[in-house]
Amino acid sequence: MRWIRSALVIRNVLAVAVTTAAVAGLAGAGITASAAPAELNTADLKTVPFEVSGELPIYPKALWSNGSSSVEVRKVEARLIQLKLLDKRWLDNSYGTMTRSAVKKFQTSHDIPPLGYVDENTWKKLSAATREPTRAELYPPAPVVNGVKLDERCASGVALCIDKSTRKLRYVVDGVVKMQFDVRFGAQKTATREGGFSVGWKSRNHVSKLYDSPMPYAMFFSGGQAVHYSSDFAARGYNGASHGCVNVRDLAKIRQLFDLVNVGDKVIVYRS
């Protein structure tokens, strides 16, 4: 029986300690132990977006967030474009910084914590505020220039649309061709790669270390391959070839293009 009495004493001591700590904590927060919940000053309480577990807020699960890439992301972007919160150039299946910024704007305007990602609540409210995007909204028709249909990947956003068949580079913004250039490509053994790329970096006065040749206004899109001005192309035309780069021979126009193009802009190399 003695050990039972000892255990009861210890339990009572612990209960008193816990109660004292709780009262001290409430007092430190400016709340007395005797105050009823209805008497609390709600202005002194910190709010969190959702539930609270201990000291940490529990945020809702993200359906799509920064770095996501899918057709569903394209649908989110199309709806944001309907609300004029996102520019058409960012309709690209990729949840990047511009999509995140647009989502934050939408959340703020609809009294949703601006977390910057799409959770179930945000998606429901975005769906209610917009209509189902049409196929033309999701996949704008490819622009046609002089009877030639551009690659469909050039139909939205900003793109350097490079056609090997017509040997043309077109600077396209939201399906509108803003500038057009004659270009040449690599020889058979140093072929210019085809596919969808993006501008990785730019170098205004670049010089190739491999070939010790100038590459002014270089816009790199695939390893060492870049769009750049070529004095050889200007002098010899299609009698020569590059080492894999996309050569431009109009110096004045590529100067303008270099200033217009941003890192991250699409580069589409294809055959029509």
Automatic annotation (TrEMBL):
CDD domains from the xrefs? YkuD_like (cd16913)
Q: Which UniProt keywords apply?
A: Cell shape, Cell wall biogenesis/degradation, Peptidoglycan synthesis, Signal, Transferase
Catalytic-site annotation from UniProt:
228, 245
Q: Does the keyword Phosphoprotein apply?
A: no
Q: Do the record's keywords include Mitochondrion?
A: no
Q: Which Gene3D superfamilies match?
A: L,D-transpeptidase catalytic domain-like, PGBD-like superfamily/PGBD
Signal peptide feature range: 1-29
Known pathway: Cell wall biogenesis; peptidoglycan biosynthesis
Name one matching Pfam family.
PG_binding_1
What SUPFAM superfamilies is this protein classified in?
L,D-transpeptidase catalytic domain-like, PGBD-like
Question: For the L,D-TPase catalytic domain, which residue ranges apply?
Answer: 158-270
* The protein's name in its UniProt record: L,D-transpeptidase family protein
Which organism is this protein's natural source? Kribbella sancticallisti
